[in-house]
C-alpha cells in the first residue's frame, strides 16, 4: 500500500466520504420510476406487495411446495421408471469406432446364438458338423446348402458381460427345446427328484489369497485347513441341499451320502480325499490333509488343474499365491419342472438364498488367508449394498448441514426448514425436467454426488438472501426492504448460479453418456435451486418477520435465565457491541434505471435497530467482525505481499501440474482393501470371467481308487511343507500314539443364552445335555471341541474354565490361561490342557472375554468371531491349539483317518504333468469379416443400457471365395508371438473335424494353428449363418496384452494390433471383401473409454472456463473486474491439480471427471465478492484518491458478502466430508476434490481477490446498460472468432488424419 493512502483508509472515522456514500442508496427500491421503466418498477412493486403480505407469502410457499411435489408424483405414476445405472459401462462412448466395432460383433453373436452370456456353454458338436456338411457339399460341387438354420454355440469371452447375465440361462436354444420336451416326459416316467438340480446354473466364486509374513504359498497346511473349513462351512448351510448342484456323476461317490450334492470345484478335492470301503474318493470331503506334494502331482496331470492357480505355478515349482474354488448350484429347483418353469421366480429364490453367504464369507479371512467371494448374484448384491450405504452418508451430511444452517440463521428453525426445503424441492423439479422434459431415462453413478454438491450451492443462495435482508434492516418501510432484498440478492445469486450452471452445462458436450447426463442434471438442479430459493426465501422471510421471529425471540431469551450462557446478537439483527453495522440515509427521487442498487455504506454510527429486531445470536456478528479486522483489512494493507505470495504459489503449482502423470494402472472402482476391488484386480491374473470349470475337480477327473494299491507300494509320507511326523513315520504309528492318549481326552460342549440383550452368554460344560433356557449354538458357531484332561506330549498349556453367579439370574462362564479371580466372584469349574503352538492334526481356537457385564467368554474358530476386547479379569484373551474332533464319541479312540498323509503318487504312480492351457488371461482380440458396422439410426440416447442397434452385413462377403486369404491371415496372426500367445489362435468354431475339411477347399488351409484350450472349453471363433449362407466370420486370438495395465499403456498394444491387421489386409487384392475387415476387443473399448474420458473432461474444463469468462465479462462489464475472477479461478485449478500430484494421484478418468466441475464450483465466491464491489456506492468526492476509493469499496464488499460466502464454503466443505468415507472410489475422490477446491477457493477469494480488487479495480466504475451491451458484443465477437478457429482446425485435422490413413 502507498504510504499516503494509509491515513485515508484507516483513520478513526470515515468522515465526509461516508456521508456522501449514503446518497440515494436504498431509495432505488422503486420510489420513483421514469416513464420508460414503469413496467419494470411496477413488477418490483408487485413483488414487494406480495412479499410483505403474510397471507400472500404463505400462498407462494404453498404453491412452491405443491408444484414440484405434484410434478414429481406425475413422473413416478405416469412416466417410464427412471433406471439407475451403477455400471462402469455407463462411461462407454458408443459413438467411438472401438465401441462400434465390438458392439457390431456382440449384436451378431447375440443374434446368432440367442445370448452372449458370461459363462462358456457346453454345446453339441453336431452344430459344427452341420458346417462341415456345408463345406463338403461345396467341395463336392453340388452347390446345395443345408436349409436347416445352424446355431454355432461359440462366443467371445466376456463380450457384453453386462448384457442378459441375469435373464438368460446357461444353455443353447436347441438344448432348451430338448429339456422342455424331456422334462415333460420325465414328469410322467420318473420320480420328481430325478431331474431336479441337475443343471449347473448358478455359482459362488471363491478366491483364497495367501497373505501375512513369510512365503506367500497357498499350499501350506494352515492355509489349506482354512480353505477346507470355509468350503465346508458353506455346505453346512441349512438350505444348501435345496439349491446344490446334483449331477449324475456324483452318484458314484459313496461318501457324499444320500444328498449327493456336488462338492466345491476345488483343488482340495485332491488334498482332502475321502475313504469308504477301501477306496479313495477325490471329493474334498475327507477330514484329514493328504500329502501336499503327492496330491498336487496327481492334480497337475490334468490340464484343468491350471484353472485353479495363478500363472506362476509350474510342474517344477508347485507354488501359487492364490487358489480358486467354485460352488455350483443346480436347477430346476424343487417344485419346478424345468429351467423355463417360472424362471424369474427360481432366480429370485436362489438370490434370496445366496446373499445370506455374504456376511459369513466376509468374516472368514485370517492373518494367513484372505477370502474373496463373488459370483453374479453375490457380486451384484454387494455392489448394490455398497452404493446404497454410500448414499446413506448423504443423510449424515444433511444432518450436519441442518445443524450448521440452524446455527448460522441464529437458531431459527423456521428459516432453516424453508431454506433446506427450497433446496430439496429444486431437486424434485430438476428430476422432472431431466426425465420428462429432456427424456433421459437413466440416472448414472455420477448423479449421486449431486446430492452433496447442491447442498453447498443452494445454501449459498439462502445465506445471500438472509444476509441481504439483514443489510436492509434500516429501511423503515417493509415493502422497500423486501424489494431491495429480492432485487439485490436475486441479481447476485442469478449471476453466480448462471455462471455455475453454464460451467456444468459445458459437460453436456462430452461424448461419454455418464458425463453428459451429469452435466445436464447439474445445470438443471443449479438453475432450479436458484429459482426456488428466489421464490421461497423472500416469502419465508416475510412470514418469519411478522409471525415467527417474536416467538423465537421470546424462546431464545429464556436462555438468559440459565447461568453461564452468554448472549450476543443475531446475523439478522444489527446490534453489535464491537462492530458498528450499516446505516442508510434515503433521499427521495432516486431511481437506478441505469445502474445497480447500492449496498449499505459502512459507518461508525450508533445502532438504530428498530425495536423487536434484536435477539440472541453469536455466529454471524463475530464472523463479520473477524472477516473485517482479521482478514480484509490486513489483506488490503499488505496487498502487494499477498499478490507476491500468490504469484509464487501459482508458479509452483503450475509446475507441479506439468508433472502429473497419466494413470499407470487400471482405474479403481472401490477401495483397495475391499472384497470387490481385490476381486476385480485379481481377475486380470485369473482365467477369463466367461470360463467356468464345474467338472474340473477330482470328483470328475479321477475314478475311485483302491486304497491298497497305493498303500502297499510306499509308506505314507507328509510333505516337507507340513507339520508332523518325519518321512519314516506311518499313519499307524500316529494312530497308536493317539490311542495312548484317549484315556485323557475330554469334550467341552458349548451352549448359549440369548435373551435379547446386547451380550450373548456362552456356557462351557463337560455334559452334552442342554437345559432350558440354554440352547445349542447355530451352524456358524463352535458347538464343541476336544482337549486333554492331563498334559500330553506338547499339550501342556492349562486352560481354566471359571464360573460366576454374581451376575444373576443366570451364571456366566469365562476361559482364562491364568487363575480365576475370586475378587470378582469367579470360581474354578474345570480345566483342560491345550497346546501353545501348532501340532499334527490340531486346530487353532480363539477365546476372548466380553468387556460388558456379565463379562462372558466366547470360543471360536476365527478371530472375527472373537472380536471382544480384553476383559477385566486377567488373562482372558488369546488362542490355543486342540486336537481335531473325531467322529466317534469321546469315550472311544480318536483315530486318524486312512487318508491322513496319503500320497497318491507314491512309487511313481502319477503320469507326466499336463501342458498349461490358455484360459483367457490375456485380452481376447477378434478379427471380423463380413460385418460393415452397426446401425443405430433408431438409437438416439447413446446410452449403454439402451438398444444396441442392428448389424450391417457386407453383401460381397463369400467365405468360399475368400477361404485361402482367410487361412493366410489366420496363420500370419497366429504366428506373431509379439501379439498372440502360443496356442492362442482360435480361427475355427468348436469341432474336431473342421480342420480336416478345410485343406480340401484350399491348399493354404493346411496346418492351421490349433488352440491350446481346456478340455471341453469352446473356441471363441464364430461363424455367422443367416438363412442358407455364411454371412460373417470372426477369428479369435488370445493376445499378450495384460488386462491389468492402465489404458494409456495398453493403447500402444492397440496400435500394434491395428497396424499389423491393416498391413495384412492391405496385401489382399483390391476386389477382396476382406479388406473391409477389422480387429476388435472388449478391452479396447475400456481403454478408449478412459482415454476419451480424460480428454473429454479436460476439454470440458477449458470450455467451462471459456463460458465462465464470457458470462463474467457480461455481468461485470469491465475487464479489470474480470481479471480478479479469472486469475482466482486459474489459481484454484492449478493448486488443486498440484495437491493431487502431492497426494500421489495420477490423472485417470475419475480424477479428470472430478476436475471438470472445478470451474463451476470455484467461481461462486470470487464472483460474489466482485458483485459486492459493484454494489458498493462510488463517492463523488474527487479529492479522494483512486487507491483509497478502491480499498473502501473492497472493504464494503467483504462486509456485505463475506459472511454469506464463508458460511456457504463451510457448508459445502462439511457436506462433502461424508464422501471421504465412501467405499466407491469415484465418490470418495469427488468429495476430496470438492472439499479441497472449496477450501482453496474461499481462501483465494478472501486474500488474492481482495488484494486484486484493492489494487487494480476501477475505483468509480458503476455498471450501466451501455457497459453491459458493449461487453456482450465483445463476448459475441470473441465467441464467433473462437468458433471459426475451432472449425478450421477441425477441418484441417480431419484432412490430415485422412491423408495419414490413406
UniProtKB/TrEMBL annotation:
The chain crosses the membrane at residues 55-77, 391-408, 415-436, 442-467, 488-506, 518-544, 641-663, 1097-1115, 1122-1143, 1197-1227, 1233-1256, 1268-1290. Residues 150-172 are annotated as: Disordered. PROSITE patterns: SSD. It comes from the Eukaryota. The keyword ATP-binding does not apply. The keyword Endoplasmic reticulum does not apply. Residues 438-543 form the SSD domain. Residues 163-172 have a biased composition (Basic and acidic residues). Keywords: Membrane, Transmembrane, Transmembrane helix. GO terms for cellular component: cytoplasm. This is SSD domain-containing protein.
Amino acid at each position: 500500500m502507498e504510504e499516503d493512502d494509509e491515513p485515508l483508509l484507516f483513520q478513526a472515522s470515515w468522515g465526509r466520504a461516508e456521508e456522501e456514500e449514503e446518497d440515494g442508496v436504498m431509495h432505488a427500491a422503486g420510489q420513483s420510476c421514469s416513464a420508460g421503466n414503469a413496467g419494470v418498477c411496477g413488477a418490483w412493486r408487485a413483488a414487494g406487495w406480495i412479499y410483505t403480505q403474510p397471507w400472500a407469502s404463505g400462498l407462494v410457499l404453498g404453491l412452491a411446495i405443491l408444484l414440484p411435489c405434484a410434478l414429481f408424483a406425475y413422473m413416478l405414476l405416469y412416466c417410464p421408471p427412471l433406471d439407475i445405472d451403477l455400471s462402469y459401462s455407463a462411461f462407454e462412448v458408443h459413438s467411438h469406432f472401438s465401441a462400434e466395432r465390438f458392439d457390431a460383433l456382440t449384436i451378431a453373436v447375440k443374434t446368432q446364438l440367442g445370448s452372449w452370456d458370461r459363462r462358456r456353454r457346453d454345446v453339441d458338436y453336431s452344430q459344427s458338423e452341420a458346417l462341415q456338411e456345408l463345406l463338403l457339399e461345396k467341395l463336392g460341387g453340388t452347390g446345395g446348402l443345408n436349409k436347416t438354420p445352424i446355431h454355432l454355440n461359440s462366443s467371445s469371452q466376456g463380450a457384453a458381460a453386462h448384457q442378459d447375465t441375469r435373464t438368460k440361462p446357461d444353455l443353447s436354444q436347441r438344448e432348451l427345446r430338448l429339456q422342455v420336451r424331456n422334462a415333460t416326459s420325465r414328469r410322467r416316467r420318473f420320480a420328481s427328484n430325478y431331474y431336479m438340480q441337475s443343471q449347473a446354473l448358478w455359482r459362488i466364486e471363491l478366491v483364497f489369497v495367501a497373505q501375512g509374513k513369510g512365503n506367500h504359498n497357498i499350499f501350506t497346511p494352515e492355509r489349506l485347513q482354512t480353505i477346507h473349513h470355509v468350503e465346508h462351512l458353506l455346505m453346512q448351510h441349512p438350505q444348501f441341499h435345496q439349491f446344490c448342484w446334483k449331477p449324475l456323476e456324483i452318484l458314484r461317490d459313496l461318501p457324499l451320502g444320500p444328498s449327493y450334492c456336488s462338492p466345491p470345484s476345488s483343488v482340495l478335492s485332491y488334498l482332502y480325499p475321502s475313504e469308504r470301503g477301501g477306496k479313495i474318493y477325490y471329493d474334498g470331503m475327507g477330514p484329514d490333509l493328504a500329502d501336499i506334494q503327492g496330491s498336487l502331482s496327481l492334480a497337475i496331470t490334468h490340464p484343468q488343474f491350471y484353472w485353479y492357480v495363478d500363472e506362476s505355478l509350474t510342474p517344477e515349482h508347485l507354488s501359487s499365491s492364490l487358489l480358486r474354488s467354485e460352488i455350483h448350484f443346480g436347477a430346476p429347483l424343487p417344485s419346478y419342472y424345468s429351467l423355463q418353469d417360472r424362471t424369474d421366480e427360481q432366480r429370485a429364490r436362489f438370490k434370496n438364498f445366496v446373499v445370506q453367504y455374504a456376511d459369513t464369507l466376509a468374516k472368514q479371512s485370517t492373518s494367513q488367508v484372505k477370502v474373496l467371494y463373488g459370483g453374479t448374484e453375490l457380486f451384484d448384491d454387494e455392489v448394490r449394498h455398497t452404493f446404497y450405504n454410500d448414499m446413506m452418508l448423504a443423510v449424515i451430511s444433511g444432518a450436519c448441514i441442518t445443524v450448521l444452517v440452524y446455527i448460522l440463521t441464529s437458531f431459527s428453525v423456521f428459516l432453516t426448514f424453508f431454506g433446506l426445503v427450497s433446496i430439496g424441492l429444486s431437486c424434485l423439479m430438476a428430476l422432472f425436467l431431466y426425465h420428462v422434459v429432456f427424456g433421459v431415462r437413466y440416472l448414472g453413478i455420477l448423479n449421486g454426488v449431486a446430492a452433496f454438491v447442491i447442498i453447498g450451492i443452494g445454501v449459498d443462495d439462502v445465506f445471500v438472501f438472509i444476509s441481504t435482508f439483514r443489510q436492509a434492516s434500516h429501511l423503515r418501510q417493509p415493502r422497500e426492504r423486501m424489494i431491495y432484498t429480492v432485487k439485490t440478492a436475486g441479481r447476485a445469486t442469478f449471476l453466480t448460479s448462471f455462471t455455475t450452471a453454464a460451467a456444468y452445462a459445458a459437460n453436456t458436450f462430452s461424448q461419454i453418456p455418464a458425463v453428459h447426463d451429469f452435466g445436464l442434471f447439474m445445470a438443471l438442479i443449479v438453475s432450479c435451486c436458484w429459482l426456488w430459493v428466489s421464490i421461497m426465501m423472500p416469502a419465508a422471510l416475510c412470514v418469519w418477520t411478522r409471525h415467527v421471529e417474536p416467538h423465537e425471540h421470546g424462546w431464545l431469551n429464556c436462555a438468559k435465565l440459565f447461568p453461564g450462557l452468554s448472549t450476543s446478537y443475531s446475523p439478522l439483527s444489527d446490534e453489535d457491541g464491537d462492530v458498528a453495522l450499516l446505516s442508510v440515509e434515503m433521499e427521495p427521487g432516486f431511481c437506478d434505471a441505469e445502474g445497480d442498487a447500492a449496498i449499505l455504506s459502512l459507518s461508525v454510527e450508533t445502532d438504530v435497530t428498530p425495536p423487536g429486531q434484536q435477539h440472541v445470536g453469536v455466529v454471524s456478528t463475530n464472523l463479520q467482525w473477524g472477516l473485517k479486522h482479521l482478514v480484509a483489512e490486513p489483506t488490503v494493507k499488505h496487498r502487494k505481499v499477498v499478490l507476491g505470495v500468490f504469484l509464487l504459489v501459482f508458479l509452483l503449482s503450475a509446475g507441479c501440474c506439468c508433472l502429473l502423470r497419466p494413470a499407470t494402472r487400471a482405474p479403481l472402482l472401490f477401495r483397495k482393501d475391499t472384497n470387490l476391488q481385490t476381486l476385480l484386480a485379481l481377475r486380470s491374473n485369473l482365467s477369463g470371467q466367461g470360463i467356468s470349470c464345474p467338472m474340473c475337480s477330482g470328483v470328475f477327473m479321477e475314478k475311485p481308487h483302491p486304497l491298497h494299491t497305493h498303500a502297499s507300494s510306499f509308506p505314507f509320507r507328509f510333505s516337507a511343507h507340513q507339520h508332523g511326523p518325519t518321512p519314516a513315520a506311518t499313519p499307524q504309528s500316529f494312530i497308536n500314539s493317539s490311542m495312548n492318549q484317549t484315556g485323557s481326552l475330554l469334550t467341552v460342549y458349548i451352549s448359549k443364552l440369548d435373551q435379547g440383550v446386547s451380550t450373548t452368554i456362552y456356557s462351557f460344560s463337560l455334559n452334552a445335555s442342554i437345559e432350558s433356557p440354554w440352547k445349542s449354538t447355530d451352524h456358524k458357531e463352535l458347538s464343541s471341541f476336544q482337549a486333554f484332561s492331563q498334559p500330553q506330549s506338547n499339550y501342556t498349556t492349562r486352560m481354566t474354565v471359571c464360573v460366576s453367579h454374581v451376575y444373576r439370574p443366570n451364571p456366566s462362564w469365562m476361559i482364562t490361561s491364568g487363575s480365576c479371580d475370586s475378587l470378582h466372584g469367579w470360581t474354578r469349574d474345570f480345566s483342560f490342557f491345550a497346546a501353545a503352538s501348532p501340532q499334527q492334526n490340531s486346530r487353532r481356537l480363539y477365546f476372548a472375554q466380553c468387556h460388558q457385564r456379565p463379562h462372558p467368554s466366547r470360543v471360536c474358530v476365527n478371530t472375527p468371531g472373537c472380536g471382544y476386547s480384553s476383559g477385566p479379569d486377567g488373562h482372558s484373551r488369546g488362542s490355543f491349539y486342540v486336537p481335531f474332533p473325531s467322529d466317534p464319541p469321546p469315550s472311544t479312540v480318536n483315530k486318524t483317518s486312512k487318508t491322513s498323509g496319503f500320497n497318491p503318487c507314491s512309487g511313481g504312480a502319477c503320469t507326466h504333468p499336463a501342458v498349461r492351457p490358455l484360459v483367457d488371461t490375456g485380452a481376447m482380440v477378434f478379427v471380423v469379416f463380413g460385418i460393415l458396422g452397426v446401425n443405430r439410426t433408431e438409437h438416439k440416447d447413446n446410452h449403454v443400457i439402451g438398444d444396441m442397434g442392428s448389424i450391417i452385413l457386407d453383401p460381397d462377403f463369400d467365405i468360399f471365395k475368400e477361404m485361402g486369404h482367410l487361412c493366410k491371415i489366420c496363420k500370419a496372426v497366429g504366428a506373431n508371438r509379439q501379439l498372440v500367445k502360443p496356442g492362442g489362435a482360435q480361427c475355427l468354431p468348436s469341432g474336431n473335424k473342421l480342420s480336416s475339411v478345410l485343406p480340401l477347399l484350399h491348399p493354404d488351409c493346411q496346418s492351421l494353428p490349433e488352440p491350446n484350450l481346456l478340455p471341453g472349453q469352446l473356441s471363441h471363433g464364430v461363424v455367422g449363418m443367416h438363412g442358407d449362407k455364411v454371412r460373417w466370420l470372426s477369428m479369435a486370438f488370445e493376445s499378450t496384452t495384460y488386462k491389468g495395465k492402465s489404458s494409456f499403456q495398453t493403447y500402444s498394444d492397440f496400435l500394434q494390433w491395428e497396424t499389423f491387421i491393416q498391413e495384412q489386409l492391405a496385401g489382399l487384392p483390391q476386389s477382396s471383401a476382406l479388406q473391409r475387415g477389422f480387429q476388435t476387443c472388449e478391452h479396447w473399448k475400456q481403454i478408449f473409454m478412459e482415454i476419451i474420458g480424460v480428454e473429454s473432461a479436460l476439454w470440458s474444463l477449458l470450455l467451462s472456463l471459456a463460458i465462465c469468462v464470457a458470462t463474467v465479462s457480461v455481468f461485470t462489464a469491465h475487464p479489470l473486474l474480470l481479471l480478479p475472477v479469472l486469475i482466482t479461478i486459474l489459481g484454484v485449478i492449478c493448486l488443486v491439480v498440484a495437491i493431487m500430484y502431492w497426494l500421489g494421484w495420477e490423472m485417470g478418468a475419475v480424477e479428470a471427471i472430478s476436475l471438470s466441475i472445478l470451474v463451476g464450483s470455484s467461481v461462486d465466491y470470487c464472483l460474489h465478492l466482485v458483485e459486492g464491489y459493484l454494489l458498493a456506492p462510488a463517492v463523488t468526492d474527487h479529492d479522494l484518491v483512486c487507491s483509497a476509493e478502491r480499498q473502501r469499496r473492497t472493504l464494503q464488499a467483504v462486509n456485505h458478502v463475506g459472511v454469506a460466502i464463508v458460511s456457504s464454503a463451510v457448508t459445502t466443505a462439511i457436506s462433502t466430508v461424508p464422501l471421504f468415507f465412501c467405499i466407491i472410489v469415484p465418490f470418495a475422490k469427488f468429495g476430496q476434490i470438492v472439499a479441497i477446491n472449496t477450501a482453496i477457493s474461499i481462501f483465494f477469494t478472501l486474500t488474492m481477490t481482495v488484494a486484486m480488487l484493492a489494487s487494480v479495480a476501477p475505483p468509480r466504475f458503476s455498471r450501466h446498460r451501455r457497459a453491459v451491451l458493449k461487453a456482450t458484443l465483445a463476448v459475441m465477437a470473441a465467441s464467433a472468432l473462437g468458433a471459426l478457429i475451432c472449425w478450421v482446425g477441425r477441418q484441417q485435422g480431419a484432412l490430415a488424419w485422412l491423408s495419414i490413413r490413406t
